[in-house]
Design a protein that fits this description.
The complex is a heterodimer of chains A (289) and B (273). Chain A is 77% helix and 1% strand. Chain A has 289 residues and is an all-alpha fold. Chain A has two domains: 46 residues; 232 residues, Orthogonal Bundle (MetI-like fold), CATH 1.10.3720.10. A two-stranded antiparallel sheet of chain A has the order 1-2. In chain A, helix 2 crosses helix 12, helix 3 crosses helix 12 and helix 9 packs antiparallel against helix 12. Chain B is mainly alpha-helical. Chain B has two domains: 52 residues, no CATH class; 207 residues, MetI-like (MetI-like fold, Orthogonal Bundle). In chain B, helix 1 crosses helix 11, helix 6 crosses helix 8 and helix 10 runs antiparallel to helix 11. Classes of the chains: A mainly alpha (289), B mainly alpha (273). Chains A and B meet through helix 2, helix 4, helix 5, helix 6 and helix 9 of A and helix 1, helix 3, helix 4, helix 5 and helix 6 of B.
């Protein structure tokens, strides 16, 4: 005779769907309460107007005050994304096709370091390194390449771009190099035997095959750069500055959640737009013969 | 023969130059931070510190100083975050990795969402909600914000860790008469433990380095190392800022160097699947 499950607990354990959901519930509730609820809150607050319910007054004010900063943010994050992509492809390409094993292993050891360094630490390092009398200018002057009077501080939009590229390139390069390493080598070898140069092989054979990885890495980096508050605060908090700084300013100085959340919604929209481009491209590629 | 030698030597000129440039770009900022950490006096136009020393280290590690308080806060917050994140992720990872879960894809993506939205706007609203609940400026409030961000790592990595375990091992234990719970605790969980430890390390580092959420939720009562670093840097106290940077840097680099031991390739391959 087959014994029945001993307890109510035993019966629940055997109800596959119920138990699985029950096991996932604590983690899901955490995300729901700590992320989805505040996210909904931010969207509602962005479209709320005092006294009169819903409206776009916060957005009009946000565009009136901060349209320069919105543009500034788009330009900085855009330039950084392009540079990160270019450097990541260059690093991945050299790691895949480099002719000197020694140079390849040196580069492999070198390029990962910033990956392990927190943004706030990167911000502090760049704050000292890129200053007018920072180590970068001191070394260039010391090498006799520049006169002390010609040096300038890079602590402006360039500093933010440099810090972002410095910090995020290893992350994308790591993904891209991994994808390149798992490619079928025979087409690369065949192209090389036919006399194709390495740059041409990289551009025409390797990059098209790892494009999805590059794009995913760049989108993730884009979101990270849209989220970082410490770097723009530490490198360049003057005008114009990035949207993250404006949001913090609206809250800390005026307690103005409406405009801050409108700016937040604009930053969601910017990342959403980038993700949409990616998805559309994916559909088009999938539909191609 | 000499021709070959000469051509390899010639190839090393551009190669060496580029590698040197890469090294300069990567280690230059690090070197500047190290210099500041051991500087007593350094002002323009001196190219290197004028006086070196440990005076600021003594100030940072003075037991009653606020640097020690931030360090202790940071470590306690990170440890509590790990405990909470890992304890909700073990059942979730087990279910997602080994059992049939309805809407599994959507559930996995839900944990990724905090990384997919620009986080400042979410954090200001978390702070506002916490304020109305009396959680703003509290230890537990900061822990919750860090947990929310860490869950993607702990859930995804433990899901992958549970998914790589061979089903036959569990079946063998069940056939020998072990109960489902006993099988889980004596067979499944120990096998998944390296992956779970790796996820705990990720969450620990994330919490240790977290700035934005703490900036909005913790201020002014909870100061962690990143906030101390930020304040010191904005006040122009580069020595304290650089020493704090160094304290934050050491565990990150050390853990990342050993993470490959914990995170085996078969687990890595299953993350996000």
């Amino acid at each position: 005779m087959r014994t029945a499950p001993a307890s109510a607990f035993g019966r629940l354990w055997q109800n596959e769907r119920f138990l699985s959901l029950a096991l996932v519930t604590p983690a899901l509730l955490t995300i729901g309460a700590l992320f989805l609820y505040p996210l909904g809150f931010s969207v509602i607050s962005a479209f709320s107007v005092e006294d009169s319910g819903f409206g776009i007054a916060n957005f009009t004010k946000a565009f009136d005050f901060y349209s320069n900063d919105i543009l500034f943010t788009v330009i900085i994050v855009g330039i950084s994304t392009v540079l990160i992509g270019a450097f990541a492809i260059a690093i991945g390409g050299y790691l895949t096709m480099g002719e000197s094993p020694l140079a390849v292993s040196i580069l492999k050891w070198l390029y990962r370091w910033p990956l392990f360094i927190p943004f706030i630490v990167a911000g502090q390092m760049m704050r000292t390194f890129l200053a007018k009398n920072g180590l970068m200018n001191n070394m260039i002057v010391g090498a006799g390449l520049l006169d002390p009077s010609q040096t300038t501080s890079f602590l402006d939009w360039r500093g933010i771009v440099i810090t972002f590229v410095w910090k995020q390139t290893p992350f994308v390069a790591l993904l891209v190099a991994g994808a390149m390493a798992s490619l079928d080598r025979s087409t690369i070898e065949a192209a090389r035997n036919l006399g194709a140069g390495r740059i041409r092989i990289l551009a025409q054979i390797i990059v098209p095959q790892v494009r999805p990885t590059i794009v995913v890495g760049l989108i993730l980096s884009f979101v990270v750069m849209m989220s970082v508050l410490s770097v723009p605060l530490m490198i360049n908090a003057q005008n114009p500055t990035m949207l993250t700084v404006d949001m913090a300013f609206r809250i800390n100085t005026y307690g103005d959640y409406g405009v801050a959340n409108a700016l937040g919604f604009i930053s969601y929209a910017m990342t959403g737009f980038v993700a949409w481009i990616y998805l559309r491209q994916g559909v088009r590629q999938g539909g191609a013969p | 023969m000499t021709g070959i030698l000469r051509s390899t030597a010639a190839a090393w000129v551009p190669r060496g130059l580029i590698l040197f440039l890469v090294a300069f770009v990567i280690f230059g900022p690090l070197a500047n931070m190290l210099l500041w950490a051991f500087t007593e006096v350094w002002y323009f136009p001196a190219k290197l510190p004028i006086e070196w020393g440990f005076a600021f280290w003594e100030r940072v590690f003075r037991p009653q100083g606020n640097a020690m308080e931030s360090l202790i806060n940071s470590v306690l917050i990170a440890l509590t975050t790990v405990v909470i994140a890992v304890s909700v992720s073990i059942p979730a990872g087990y279910a997602l990795g080994r059992r049939r879960v309805p809407w599994r894809g959507i559930i996995l993506v839900a944990f990724l969402l905090p990384q997919a939205f620009p986080s400042v706007a979410v954090h200001i609203n978390v702070a506002r909600i916490f304020y109305s609940m009396g959680l703003a400026g509290t230890f537990f409030g900061v822990v919750l914000v860090h947990t929310m961000q860490g869950l993607v790592f702990s859930v995804w990595i433990s899901t992958a860790a549970f998914a790589t375990i061979d089903h036959e091992l569990e079946e063998a234990a069940r056939n020998l008469g072990a109960s489902a719970l006993r099988t889980f605790f004596t067979v499944t969980l120990p096998l998944a433990l390296p992956g779970i430890m790796a996820s705990g390390i990720f969450v620990f580092l994330l919490s240790l380095d977290e700035f934005t959420g703490t900036f909005f939720v913790g201020v002014p009562d909870i100061t962690t190392l990143p906030l101390l670093l930020f304040t010191a840097s904005m006040e122009g106290n580069y020595q304290i800022a650089s020493i704090t940077s160094l304290i934050l840097l050491v565990p990150s680099v050390a853990f990342m160097l050993i993470i490959e031991r914990f995170l085996k390739a078969d687990v890595l391959a299953k993350i996000g699947n």
